[in-house]
């Protein structure tokens, strides 16, 4: 009597772990994985939608309250006025120009302080530092970003101004824009250094080796090969740092004072847009008053400024991005 079972197929089925001729495929695991994927996709979609809804809600609140303000104060007077005294009972002033000037001055000095320090740190980490040193130094630099900004503010107020700047510049006031700007610059150094270093390390090793083969030094490779190749990423990092400097609140509120600048002198006290919002809300303005709704107009202007910077960053990054294969 001959058997109908193929011994080779039976052995192969046992070795490969495949189902025998009479064992159906178990699809329950496939179904559960597909269900898990659908749940994860739904959760991720809800998270993305929530961020969009939050942004839209913020814009709606800012615009609605700002429109209420611009009914009483013309938008041209708000943007070009040179006197900011919303709390004055007899003759309130709602010219935002001194606040914008203070914001741009502090942000400008901050980026002058942070850009060379951040780029130098990025070049060292990317081109010069051994891997072991980089693993220690980069987290140490990024640790600066984790310090609360109010600590930077007290540092500028109680140490930087009296101990460092006063001996060098006797005419500097106790509350001044220079110390606040330097503190903001220190705050954004890790942002420029970390993002710029990431952009530099993304440059292919073959470009460096080609430059070295032509006799270039490390400095020449870093300045003439790596920096131009990583230009889009570095530019995006700088613009993002400027946005952070413009939106900084606690440092400028503590160190630069609460008086709008008169002549743009950073040795004197000056108030930024964020500082004006903090100062106004600390006095608890009455809801619905011009002083109250003017803060939403400042917030809307800040939103437009930072949004413009982000758009410029995206355009520059897309325009100069290099794609390597």
UniProtKB/TrEMBL annotation:
Region (Disordered) location: 1-20
Keyword Signal: no
Subcellular location: Cell membrane
All residue ranges annotated as the ABC transmembrane type-1 domain in the record: 100-313
Signal sequence bounds: none
Gene Ontology biological process: phosphate ion transport
PROSITE patterns recorded: ABC_TM1 (PS50928)
One example GO MF annotation: phosphate transmembrane transporter activity
Transmembrane segments: 43-76, 96-124, 136-157, 177-195, 225-246, 292-312
Main location: membrane
Coiled coil stretches, renumbered: none
One Gene Ontology term, aspect cellular component: plasma membrane
InterPro entries, A to Z: MetI-like (IPR000515), MetI-like_sf (IPR035906), Phosphate_PstC (IPR011864)
Annotated keywords: Cell membrane, Membrane, Phosphate transport, Transmembrane, Transmembrane helix, Transport
Membrane topology: Multi-pass membrane protein
Top-level lineage group: Bacteria
Family of the protein in this entry: Belongs to the binding-protein-dependent transport system permease family. CysTW subfamily.
Job of this protein: Part of the binding-protein-dependent transport system for phosphate; probably responsible for the translocation of the substrate across the membrane.
Protein name: Phosphate transport system permease protein
Species in which this protein is naturally found: uncultured Thermomicrobiales bacterium
């Amino acid at each position: 009597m001959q058997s109908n079972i193929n011994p080779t197929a039976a052995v192969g089925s046992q070795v490969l772990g495949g189902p025998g001729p009479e064992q159906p495929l178990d699809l329950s695991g496939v179904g559960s994985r597909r269900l898990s994927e659908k749940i994860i996709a739904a959760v991720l979609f809800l998270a993305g939608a929530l961020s969009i809804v939050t942004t839209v809600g913020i814009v709606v609140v800012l615009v609605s309250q700002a429109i209420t303000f611009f009914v009483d104060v013309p938008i041209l007077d708000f943007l070009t006025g040179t006197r900011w005294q919303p709390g004055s009972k007899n003759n309130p002033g709602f010219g935002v120009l001194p606040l914008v000037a203070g914001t741009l001055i502090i942000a400008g000095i901050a980026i002058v302080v942070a850009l060379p320090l951040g780029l130098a740190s990025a070049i060292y980490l990317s081109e010069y530092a051994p891997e072991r040193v980089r693993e220690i130094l980069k987290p140490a630099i990024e640790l600066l970003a984790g310090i609360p900004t109010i600590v930077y503010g007290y540092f500028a107020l109680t140490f930087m101004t009296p101990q460092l700047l006063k001996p060098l510049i006797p005419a500097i006031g106790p509350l001044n824009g220079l110390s606040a700007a330097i503190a903001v610059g220190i705050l954004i150094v890790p942002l420029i250094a970390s993002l710029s270093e990431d952009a530099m390390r993304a440059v292919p090793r073959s470009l460096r080796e080609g430059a070295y083969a032509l006799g270039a030094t490390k400095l020449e490779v870093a300045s003439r090969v790596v920096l131009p190749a990583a230009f889009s990423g570095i530019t995006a990092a700088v613009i993002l740092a400027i946005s952070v400097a413009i939106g900084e609140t606690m440092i400028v509120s503590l160190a630069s004072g609460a008086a709008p600048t008169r002549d743009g002198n950073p040795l004197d006290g000056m108030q930024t847009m964020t500082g004006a919002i903090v100062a106004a809300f600390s006095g608890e303005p009455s809801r619905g008053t011009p002083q109250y709704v003017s803060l939403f107009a400042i917030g809307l202007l800040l939103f437009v400024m930072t949004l413009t910077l982000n758009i410029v960053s995206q355009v520059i990054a897309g325009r100069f991005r290099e794609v390597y294969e």
